[in-house]
Amino acid sequence: MLAPTHMAGGQFAYLLMAWWTGHEPHLGEAVLAGGAALLPDVDHRSGLVGRWVPWLSGPLEHWAGHRTVTHSLVLTLVVCALAVWLLPSGLGLAVAAGFASHALLDMMTPSGVAWFWPARARCVLPGHPRWRMEPMGRGELAFLVVVAVLTWPTLLAAERGVGLLGTVRDTIGSVTEARRHYDAHRSESAWWLDVQGEDNRAFRPVEGRYRIIGPYRAAGLILETPEGPRSVCRADACDWYARRAVLDRGRAERTTVRELTAERTSVAALRAALEPLTAAGRVYLLGELEGEGLRSRPPVAESGTGGLNLRYAPLSTFEGMDGRVDWADLLVQVRHPPGAEVPWPSSVVSRESAVIDPRLRRYLP
What we know:
Elements: H1 3-21, H2 27-36, H3 48-52, H4 54-64, H5 73-86, H6 89-106, H7 138-159, H8 163-172, H9 175-185, E1 189-199, E2 205-216, E3 220-225, E4 228-233, E5 240-252, E6 254-266, H10 267-274, E7 282-292, E8 301-303, E9 308-314, E10 324-336, H11 351-355
Parallel strand pairs: 4-5
Antiparallel strand pairs: 1-2, 1-5, 2-3, 3-4, 6-10, 7-9, 7-10, 8-9
Protein backbone atom coordinates (compact mmCIF):
# COMPACT_ATOMS: atom_id res chain seq x y z
CA MET A 1 0.00 0.00 0.00
CA LEU A 2 1.00 3.60 -0.48
CA ALA A 3 2.35 5.78 2.32
CA PRO A 4 -0.79 8.01 2.54
CA THR A 5 -2.98 4.94 3.04
CA HIS A 6 -0.72 3.64 5.80
CA MET A 7 -0.65 7.04 7.49
CA ALA A 8 -4.44 7.35 7.38
CA GLY A 9 -4.77 3.79 8.64
CA GLY A 10 -2.31 4.44 11.48
CA GLN A 11 -4.17 7.54 12.60
CA PHE A 12 -7.49 5.71 12.40
CA ALA A 13 -6.07 2.85 14.49
CA TYR A 14 -4.82 5.38 17.06
CA LEU A 15 -8.28 6.97 17.31
CA LEU A 16 -9.89 3.55 17.68
CA MET A 17 -7.52 2.69 20.54
CA ALA A 18 -8.05 6.09 22.15
CA TRP A 19 -11.79 5.53 21.96
CA TRP A 20 -11.44 2.01 23.36
CA THR A 21 -9.26 3.03 26.32
CA GLY A 22 -10.91 6.37 27.10
CA HIS A 23 -7.72 8.31 26.28
CA GLU A 24 -8.40 11.82 25.03
CA PRO A 25 -6.77 12.11 21.56
CA HIS A 26 -4.32 14.88 20.67
CA LEU A 27 -3.16 16.17 17.30
CA GLY A 28 0.52 15.55 17.99
CA GLU A 29 -0.16 11.95 18.94
CA ALA A 30 -2.21 11.41 15.78
CA VAL A 31 0.68 12.74 13.67
CA LEU A 32 3.06 10.41 15.52
CA ALA A 33 0.75 7.47 14.84
CA GLY A 34 0.79 8.28 11.13
CA GLY A 35 4.59 8.36 11.16
CA ALA A 36 4.85 5.11 13.13
CA ALA A 37 2.62 3.46 10.53
CA LEU A 38 5.40 3.94 7.94
CA LEU A 39 8.21 2.37 9.98
CA PRO A 40 7.72 -1.30 8.98
CA ASP A 41 8.56 -0.39 5.37
CA VAL A 42 12.16 0.16 6.45
CA ASP A 43 12.74 -3.27 4.85
CA HIS A 44 11.95 -1.86 1.38
CA ARG A 45 14.75 0.24 -0.10
CA SER A 46 12.44 1.75 -2.74
CA GLY A 47 9.86 2.81 -0.18
CA LEU A 48 9.53 6.21 1.48
CA VAL A 49 11.25 5.20 4.73
CA GLY A 50 13.72 2.91 3.00
CA ARG A 51 15.05 5.78 0.87
CA TRP A 52 15.83 7.73 4.04
CA VAL A 53 18.01 4.93 5.47
CA PRO A 54 19.40 3.01 2.48
CA TRP A 55 22.26 1.68 4.61
CA LEU A 56 19.64 -0.24 6.64
CA SER A 57 16.85 -0.95 4.16
CA GLY A 58 19.10 -2.46 1.50
CA PRO A 59 20.76 -5.15 3.67
CA LEU A 60 17.47 -5.84 5.48
CA GLU A 61 15.58 -6.45 2.25
CA HIS A 62 18.41 -8.60 0.89
CA TRP A 63 18.60 -10.69 4.06
CA ALA A 64 14.92 -11.18 4.93
CA GLY A 65 12.87 -9.77 2.09
CA HIS A 66 10.04 -7.26 2.02
CA ARG A 67 7.08 -7.68 4.39
CA THR A 68 8.78 -10.26 6.56
CA VAL A 69 10.59 -9.50 9.81
CA THR A 70 9.48 -5.86 10.12
CA HIS A 71 5.88 -6.89 9.44
CA SER A 72 5.93 -9.88 11.78
CA LEU A 73 3.84 -10.47 14.87
CA VAL A 74 7.00 -10.89 16.96
CA LEU A 75 8.45 -7.49 16.10
CA THR A 76 5.03 -5.84 16.37
CA LEU A 77 4.62 -7.13 19.93
CA VAL A 78 8.15 -6.02 20.85
CA VAL A 79 7.68 -2.51 19.44
CA CYS A 80 4.26 -2.10 21.06
CA ALA A 81 5.55 -3.29 24.45
CA LEU A 82 8.56 -0.96 24.33
CA ALA A 83 6.44 1.99 23.22
CA VAL A 84 3.92 1.55 26.02
CA TRP A 85 6.69 0.94 28.57
CA LEU A 86 9.11 3.72 27.63
CA LEU A 87 6.87 6.51 26.35
CA PRO A 88 4.15 8.55 28.08
CA SER A 89 0.74 6.92 27.81
CA GLY A 90 -0.58 8.91 24.85
CA LEU A 91 2.65 8.72 22.83
CA GLY A 92 3.06 5.02 23.54
CA LEU A 93 -0.50 4.37 22.43
CA ALA A 94 0.10 6.31 19.20
CA VAL A 95 3.31 4.44 18.29
CA ALA A 96 1.82 1.04 19.13
CA ALA A 97 -1.39 1.62 17.18
CA GLY A 98 0.36 3.08 14.15
CA PHE A 99 3.04 0.40 13.93
CA ALA A 100 0.60 -2.49 14.41
CA SER A 101 -1.79 -1.14 11.78
CA HIS A 102 0.81 -1.40 9.00
CA ALA A 103 0.96 -5.20 8.86
CA LEU A 104 -2.83 -5.51 9.07
CA LEU A 105 -3.27 -3.21 6.09
CA ASP A 106 -0.61 -5.01 4.06
CA MET A 107 -2.46 -8.28 4.67
CA MET A 108 -5.18 -6.85 2.44
CA THR A 109 -2.84 -6.87 -0.59
CA PRO A 110 -2.52 -9.90 -2.91
CA SER A 111 0.91 -10.96 -1.58
CA GLY A 112 0.10 -10.51 2.13
CA VAL A 113 2.79 -10.49 4.84
CA ALA A 114 4.93 -13.06 6.65
CA TRP A 115 3.16 -12.34 9.91
CA PHE A 116 4.49 -15.46 11.63
CA TRP A 117 8.10 -14.87 10.55
CA PRO A 118 10.54 -16.66 10.59
CA ALA A 119 7.94 -18.93 8.98
CA ARG A 120 7.66 -17.99 5.30
CA ALA A 121 3.91 -18.55 5.05
CA ARG A 122 2.05 -15.42 3.97
CA CYS A 123 -1.01 -14.18 5.84
CA VAL A 124 -3.75 -12.45 3.88
CA LEU A 125 -7.02 -10.75 4.75
CA PRO A 126 -9.60 -11.51 3.39
CA GLY A 127 -8.90 -15.02 2.17
CA HIS A 128 -10.45 -14.67 -1.30
CA PRO A 129 -8.01 -12.95 -3.73
CA ARG A 130 -10.87 -11.10 -5.39
CA TRP A 131 -11.43 -8.95 -2.31
CA ARG A 132 -7.81 -7.95 -1.74
CA MET A 133 -6.48 -4.60 -2.90
CA GLU A 134 -3.86 -4.00 -5.54
CA PRO A 135 -1.41 -1.24 -4.51
CA MET A 136 -2.33 2.05 -6.22
CA GLY A 137 -5.53 0.46 -7.51
CA ARG A 138 -9.16 1.43 -7.20
CA GLY A 139 -9.57 -0.84 -4.20
CA GLU A 140 -6.91 1.01 -2.23
CA LEU A 141 -8.41 4.36 -3.19
CA ALA A 142 -11.87 3.23 -2.06
CA PHE A 143 -10.40 1.89 1.19
CA LEU A 144 -8.64 5.22 1.84
CA VAL A 145 -11.91 7.10 1.32
CA VAL A 146 -13.75 4.79 3.73
CA VAL A 147 -11.05 5.22 6.39
CA ALA A 148 -11.12 9.00 5.98
CA VAL A 149 -14.91 9.07 6.34
CA LEU A 150 -14.88 6.83 9.43
CA THR A 151 -12.13 8.89 11.06
CA TRP A 152 -14.42 11.81 11.89
CA PRO A 153 -17.11 9.97 13.89
CA THR A 154 -14.37 7.96 15.61
CA LEU A 155 -12.62 11.20 16.56
CA LEU A 156 -15.83 12.64 17.98
CA ALA A 157 -16.44 9.48 20.00
CA ALA A 158 -12.84 9.40 21.28
CA GLU A 159 -12.89 13.08 22.29
CA ARG A 160 -15.56 12.34 24.86
CA GLY A 161 -12.89 10.49 26.82
CA VAL A 162 -15.28 7.87 28.23
CA GLY A 163 -14.05 4.81 26.33
CA LEU A 164 -15.95 2.33 24.21
CA LEU A 165 -17.87 0.97 27.18
CA GLY A 166 -18.62 4.54 28.18
CA THR A 167 -20.15 5.14 24.77
CA VAL A 168 -22.40 2.14 25.31
CA ARG A 169 -23.23 3.47 28.79
CA ASP A 170 -24.07 6.89 27.38
CA THR A 171 -26.31 5.32 24.76
CA ILE A 172 -28.25 3.63 27.55
CA GLY A 173 -28.21 6.85 29.61
CA SER A 174 -28.13 5.33 33.10
CA VAL A 175 -27.35 7.77 35.92
CA THR A 176 -26.21 4.83 38.06
CA GLU A 177 -23.55 3.89 35.51
CA ALA A 178 -22.61 7.55 35.12
CA ARG A 179 -22.03 7.72 38.88
CA ARG A 180 -19.88 4.58 38.76
CA HIS A 181 -17.66 6.01 36.03
CA TYR A 182 -17.47 9.37 37.81
CA ASP A 183 -16.30 7.69 41.02
CA ALA A 184 -13.50 5.94 39.12
CA HIS A 185 -12.28 9.02 37.22
CA ARG A 186 -13.34 12.09 39.21
CA SER A 187 -9.73 13.16 39.88
CA GLU A 188 -8.84 13.47 36.18
CA SER A 189 -10.94 16.42 35.08
CA ALA A 190 -14.10 18.41 35.58
CA TRP A 191 -17.22 16.40 34.75
CA TRP A 192 -20.59 17.45 33.38
CA LEU A 193 -23.91 15.65 33.16
CA ASP A 194 -26.43 15.95 30.35
CA VAL A 195 -29.66 15.10 32.12
CA GLN A 196 -33.28 14.65 31.13
CA GLY A 197 -35.84 13.98 33.81
CA GLU A 198 -38.35 15.39 36.27
CA ASP A 199 -38.19 17.77 39.21
CA ASN A 200 -39.47 15.69 42.14
CA ARG A 201 -40.58 18.79 44.04
CA ALA A 202 -42.05 21.05 41.37
CA PHE A 203 -43.37 18.26 39.09
CA ARG A 204 -41.89 19.83 35.98
CA PRO A 205 -39.55 18.52 33.29
CA VAL A 206 -35.81 19.07 33.67
CA GLU A 207 -33.28 19.10 30.85
CA GLY A 208 -29.80 20.57 30.47
CA ARG A 209 -26.06 20.23 30.95
CA TYR A 210 -24.76 20.81 34.46
CA ARG A 211 -21.39 20.66 36.20
CA ILE A 212 -21.02 17.79 38.66
CA ILE A 213 -20.14 18.93 42.19
CA GLY A 214 -19.78 15.51 43.77
CA PRO A 215 -21.44 12.18 44.59
CA TYR A 216 -24.75 11.97 46.43
CA ARG A 217 -25.58 9.00 48.63
CA ALA A 218 -25.18 5.55 47.04
CA ALA A 219 -26.02 6.16 43.38
CA GLY A 220 -26.70 9.86 42.83
CA LEU A 221 -24.83 13.02 41.93
CA ILE A 222 -24.88 16.63 43.08
CA LEU A 223 -25.15 19.13 40.22
CA GLU A 224 -24.39 22.84 40.04
CA THR A 225 -27.47 24.64 38.68
CA PRO A 226 -28.54 28.30 38.41
CA GLU A 227 -30.96 27.69 41.30
CA GLY A 228 -28.23 26.17 43.48
CA PRO A 229 -26.98 22.62 44.06
CA ARG A 230 -29.43 19.85 43.14
CA SER A 231 -29.26 16.10 43.71
CA VAL A 232 -30.13 13.72 40.87
CA CYS A 233 -30.72 9.97 40.84
CA ARG A 234 -33.35 7.42 39.82
CA ALA A 235 -35.45 7.80 42.97
CA ASP A 236 -37.79 10.31 44.55
CA ALA A 237 -35.31 10.83 47.40
CA CYS A 238 -33.35 13.22 45.14
CA ASP A 239 -34.32 16.67 43.94
CA TRP A 240 -34.42 15.43 40.35
CA TYR A 241 -35.36 12.09 38.85
CA ALA A 242 -33.10 11.23 35.88
CA ARG A 243 -34.72 9.37 33.01
CA ARG A 244 -31.54 9.76 30.99
CA ALA A 245 -28.08 10.90 32.08
CA VAL A 246 -24.93 11.16 29.94
CA LEU A 247 -21.53 11.86 31.46
CA ASP A 248 -19.29 14.37 29.67
CA ARG A 249 -15.61 14.99 30.42
CA GLY A 250 -14.56 18.63 30.81
CA ARG A 251 -11.17 20.28 31.03
CA ALA A 252 -8.30 18.79 33.00
CA GLU A 253 -8.64 19.62 36.67
CA ARG A 254 -6.76 18.96 39.89
CA THR A 255 -7.95 19.09 43.49
CA THR A 256 -5.97 20.60 46.36
CA VAL A 257 -7.13 20.02 49.92
CA ARG A 258 -6.80 22.40 52.86
CA GLU A 259 -7.96 21.82 56.44
CA LEU A 260 -9.63 24.49 58.54
CA THR A 261 -10.68 24.34 62.18
CA ALA A 262 -12.06 27.25 64.16
CA GLU A 263 -14.11 27.96 67.27
CA ARG A 264 -16.14 30.85 68.66
CA THR A 265 -16.45 32.61 65.32
CA SER A 266 -19.13 33.46 62.75
CA VAL A 267 -20.26 32.40 59.29
CA ALA A 268 -19.08 35.73 57.87
CA ALA A 269 -15.60 35.22 59.36
CA LEU A 270 -15.37 31.74 57.84
CA ARG A 271 -16.33 33.07 54.42
CA ALA A 272 -13.74 35.84 54.70
CA ALA A 273 -11.04 33.30 55.60
CA LEU A 274 -11.89 31.10 52.62
CA GLU A 275 -12.39 33.87 50.07
CA PRO A 276 -8.69 34.01 48.97
CA LEU A 277 -8.93 30.38 47.79
CA THR A 278 -11.55 31.28 45.17
CA ALA A 279 -8.84 33.02 43.11
CA ALA A 280 -7.33 29.59 42.38
CA GLY A 281 -10.51 27.69 41.55
CA ARG A 282 -13.88 26.50 42.79
CA VAL A 283 -14.11 25.91 46.54
CA TYR A 284 -16.18 23.17 48.18
CA LEU A 285 -16.51 22.34 51.87
CA LEU A 286 -16.87 19.02 53.65
CA GLY A 287 -17.21 18.73 57.39
CA GLU A 288 -19.32 19.97 60.28
CA LEU A 289 -20.36 23.27 61.80
CA GLU A 290 -21.84 23.72 65.27
CA GLY A 291 -23.61 26.89 66.36
CA GLU A 292 -26.80 28.87 65.98
CA GLY A 293 -28.48 30.46 62.98
CA LEU A 294 -27.11 27.78 60.61
CA ARG A 295 -29.77 26.86 58.07
CA SER A 296 -30.08 23.54 56.30
CA ARG A 297 -29.69 23.73 52.51
CA PRO A 298 -29.90 20.22 51.06
CA PRO A 299 -28.25 18.44 49.39
CA VAL A 300 -24.95 20.11 50.38
CA ALA A 301 -25.81 21.35 53.89
CA GLU A 302 -28.07 19.24 56.08
CA SER A 303 -28.90 19.51 59.77
CA GLY A 304 -27.43 16.79 61.96
CA THR A 305 -27.43 15.93 65.63
CA GLY A 306 -24.46 18.16 66.36
CA GLY A 307 -25.03 20.97 63.88
CA LEU A 308 -24.76 21.42 60.13
CA ASN A 309 -23.19 18.66 58.03
CA LEU A 310 -21.53 19.93 54.85
CA ARG A 311 -20.95 17.75 51.79
CA TYR A 312 -19.40 19.49 48.79
CA ALA A 313 -20.97 22.78 49.83
CA PRO A 314 -19.91 25.82 47.75
CA LEU A 315 -19.28 29.10 49.54
CA SER A 316 -22.57 30.39 48.15
CA THR A 317 -24.28 28.02 50.59
CA PHE A 318 -23.59 30.56 53.34
CA GLU A 319 -25.24 33.48 51.56
CA GLY A 320 -27.84 35.02 53.84
CA MET A 321 -26.45 33.28 56.93
CA ASP A 322 -25.08 35.43 59.73
CA GLY A 323 -25.20 32.83 62.48
CA ARG A 324 -22.82 32.00 65.28
CA VAL A 325 -20.28 29.22 64.81
CA ASP A 326 -19.14 27.55 68.02
CA TRP A 327 -17.02 24.93 66.28
CA ALA A 328 -15.94 24.31 62.68
CA ASP A 329 -14.05 21.28 61.39
CA LEU A 330 -13.77 21.59 57.61
CA LEU A 331 -12.00 19.89 54.75
CA VAL A 332 -11.67 22.48 51.98
CA GLN A 333 -11.48 21.27 48.37
CA VAL A 334 -10.09 23.66 45.76
CA ARG A 335 -10.59 22.39 42.21
CA HIS A 336 -8.30 24.22 39.85
CA PRO A 337 -6.45 23.94 36.51
CA PRO A 338 -3.21 21.91 36.63
CA GLY A 339 -0.29 23.98 37.90
CA ALA A 340 -2.34 26.65 39.68
CA GLU A 341 -1.05 27.88 43.04
CA VAL A 342 -3.53 27.42 45.87
CA PRO A 343 -3.12 29.69 48.93
CA TRP A 344 -3.90 28.71 52.48
CA PRO A 345 -7.00 30.05 54.20
CA SER A 346 -6.43 33.28 56.09
CA SER A 347 -6.84 33.44 59.86
CA VAL A 348 -10.38 33.11 61.14
CA VAL A 349 -11.48 36.03 63.28
CA SER A 350 -13.09 34.92 66.55
CA ARG A 351 -16.28 36.46 67.89
CA GLU A 352 -14.37 38.04 70.76
CA SER A 353 -11.99 39.74 68.34
CA ALA A 354 -14.91 40.99 66.30
CA VAL A 355 -16.95 42.51 69.10
CA ILE A 356 -14.43 43.72 71.71
CA ASP A 357 -12.90 47.11 71.13
CA PRO A 358 -9.09 46.80 71.17
CA ARG A 359 -8.91 49.77 73.56
CA LEU A 360 -10.70 47.70 76.19
CA ARG A 361 -8.50 44.63 75.94
CA ARG A 362 -5.91 45.91 78.44
CA TYR A 363 -8.59 46.01 81.13
CA LEU A 364 -9.55 42.35 80.59
CA PRO A 365 -7.97 39.55 82.65
